[in-house]
Write a structure and sequence with these properties.
With 195 residues, the chain is of the alpha/beta class. The chain has 3 helices and 17 strands. The protein is globular and about 40 Å long.
Length: 195
């Protein structure tokens, strides 16, 4: 009986279509990334188009943030020297295809990507000129980091373990399975200075 209930739940979850919305400086749904996140629902896909975004982003629900080159390169998010550029606070988020720079300079975890959650996929981002490229808060585990470039950060990354930096991927749950199935190749991260 329990098996059939579990199968029914999985089928219902897989039939729910994630909404897709756009963020960008022109005619997109939202002009800031944070407004798109604030209006998104769990599992939604937010395509962020080319442009410069001067904001600190807090991902407070499990969404897919996908940087898209619409003719002027991947989107650049700049925190202008204050706090972290992007903070992942929701389990099961995806962050792919961004240039992230300008985090605050304190050693309190200001980073290009501050990870305060688990089971996220972080791939194909360029992290440069931050205090930390990536700062993973203790207790945040099961995160996968692949094909990210770390350039001229004061400290490339801080992680106390329990996360995957090798480029291979573990499948966690239905959502992670569908996301991993769409990835063609998972590559290693690249560091200009490995610390």
């Amino acid at each position: 009986m329990r098996v059939w209930l579990l199968i029914a739940i999985i089928l219902v979850m897989s039939s729910v279509q994630a909404a897709k919305m756009t963020a960008g400086p022109f005619d997109e749904d939202y002009q800031t990334i944070q407004k798109a996140i604030d209006h998104a629902s769990w599992g939604d896909i937010i395509e962020v188009h080319s442009g410069d975004y001067l904001e600190n982003i807090r991902v407070t629900k499990a969404v897919t943030l996908m940087g898209v080159d619409t003719g002027n390169g991947l989107p650049v998010v700049n925190a202008l020297g204050s706090g972290s550029v992007i903070t992942l606070s929701a389990n099961g988020s995806v962050l792919k295809g961004f240039n992230l720079t300008g985090s605050g300079g304190c050693g309190c975890g200001n980073a290009g990507i501050a990870v305060k959650s688990s089971n996220n996929l972080i791939s194909e981002n360029i992290l440069y000129k931050n205090k930390y490229g990536v700062y993973v808060e203790p207790g945040s585990v099961g995160n996968v980091f692949s094909s990210n470039d770390f350039l001229d950060n004061e400290i490339s990354s801080s992680d106390q373990g329990g996360n995957n930096w090798s480029g291979s991927m573990t499948i966690i749950g239905l959502k992670r399975f569908t996301q991993s199935a769409s990835l063609q190749k998972i590559g290693a991260n690249h560091f200009t200075d490995y610390d």
